[in-house]
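Following up on my earlier thread - several people asked me to post the actual chain instead of describing it. Fair enough. Here it is, all 637 residues.
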Amino acid sequence: MLPAVAGIGGIGKTRLAIEFVHRYRNHFPQGVFWLNMENPQTIAAQVAACGGQRGLQLFVDAEHEATQGLRFGSDDEARAPRLSLQQQVAQVQAVWAGPGQRLLVFDNLEDPTLLDQWRPRGGGSRVLITTRRQRWTTASGVQALPLRNLHDAASQELLLKPRADERECSIAELLTTAHEAAAAATLVQALGGHPLALNLAGTYLARSSLSLAAYHAELRGTSVNHQSLSPALVEGLPQGYQVGIVAAFALSYGRLHQSAEDQLARTIWLAAAQLAPEPISAEVLLRAGDCDPSIRDQHDQGAQALRRLRELGLIERNADNYRLHRLMIAYAQSVSPDQATDRRHAASGLAQTIKRLDDEGELDTPSAFREHLTHLFDAGINATDALHADLLHAAGLVWYESEDYRAAHSYFAQALEIKREVLPQPHRDTAVTLYELGRLAQNEGRYAEAHDYYEQALEIKREVLPQPHRSTAATLHQLGNLAQAEGCYAEAHDYYEQALTMQRAVLPQPHRDTAITLTAIRNLRWKALIETGLCAGLIWLWLPVGLDWFGAGAIIIVGMVGYWRWAIATRLVRAIWRMQIGFLLSVILFVPFITYILPNFPHSFTLLAILGGLVGLGWPWLMATARVRAVRNRMRR
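Reply from S.P.:
Thanks for posting it. Predicted structure:
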């Protein structure tokens, strides 16, 4: 395998190769040969130079020939015939393919065809590659070794050591105040562990009198174009290397051409730069480029654009996500011709992805989207149009899944207001947000408000959607859940049956939605059966003999009527068994106390029965109140 040090521009690939050569050159007694592979037109000349008098001494090169002619006055006839460039290259390559321990450093190698053209075929030569390209095929034999950003401690040392050395003190002595320590941490975060940026910033700070906080303020205003990050850095680099942050990134960006593939890659990259410097899912990026991952051709086009960005070192991949370095984000924003359009692309990709995940019940990690949404809102995407409403709706979904119900309600309410203003009414998207507001109100125990939202959503869907429809069925199912929570079993049963009929008509069977509704009907039936049976059993135990069977039978009839027809019947059964459960618990807990401590207290047992019944009757309300209070406390934390 051929080791390839891979990473974005300026992260230190070439310097690492130089350090490797410095430490291990003794392992390559036949020489170390350094080739800059950035420009394919110059590679042959570099290879030929390796065979000249300063290299393998295989032939007299042009430079040596000219020197000898000036020094000794030799004429053209006395000179040996000069080899052509191709002959010189062939001789060098023949030596490299032979025995002997040599190291060839292919620096800035981005094109796999160049590797195939210039690598030795056999022999004792070894090849070390530096590249921005993070993706190599197995057939190439290249093993990419990603070079990551520095961690905070190493970043701080690289940033502040030049200033500490200049002032002849320690880094700790530079950070004697909490203000400067905080400014140093902020600077480290802003530079994102990028070695070149830290090196340039550290060199600038060593000769500057600016405080760390003042330098960060300047850097925040000018970003990658600040004078501290733009000068050429030549110390320790091979001849001809001059690197600043902008120059390092521009080398990669400049390789994007005007082809359709590169245009798509550019659109995706500029959109990604409008999101937070956090992992971004591939689906968000594809949709930001107006590629639908569910359509094969569009998915392949988007995936190829992402591969192109990785090959150029403009984006990094980690597992199934992608990421842009903080400084790369700043550079992309500086070269963008229209950041407002880029921001809209990013918002569209984010909103569509979140909605798709929620529709499929796969919004399992909402935290992965929170930073990006907050970043877009902070950047000022405040247009009152349909896209902004979609983004607000998506934010509501994310915060709802995070159980931050107050923020979710705020986002949904803003989305609803914009949709009612900018969309023709009635509109399906308006119904979608009304539905989510209903779910939120139901989850917080505000059943009347939830019922109103659901009914509005249902009315719109029945008007604007072809019937039957999956979305209409979902609203009917949720109305069934709400009715069940309120104790209206007959109403809940009716809603579930309507939803089930629609689902069987429009969805392939079996289907997850149909299974959920069938389970809800089954659970409703068992719940009604258990509550009615429990109530009848307790009535049978407490009524005098002769009335016990009559009372139990009456309760069973009332329970059946409540399940099939009248909600008031179910509520009566639930009220009776709750009162009985409260009474039983009070007897178990307090009868010993009354018997032994207050035996002569008049009507103690009657009062106990009344108290237990009242507690049992109010218990569901008490439970709901406690649940809402717990939610609020969690939100405050």
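The longest strand covers residues 125-131. That should answer part of your original question.
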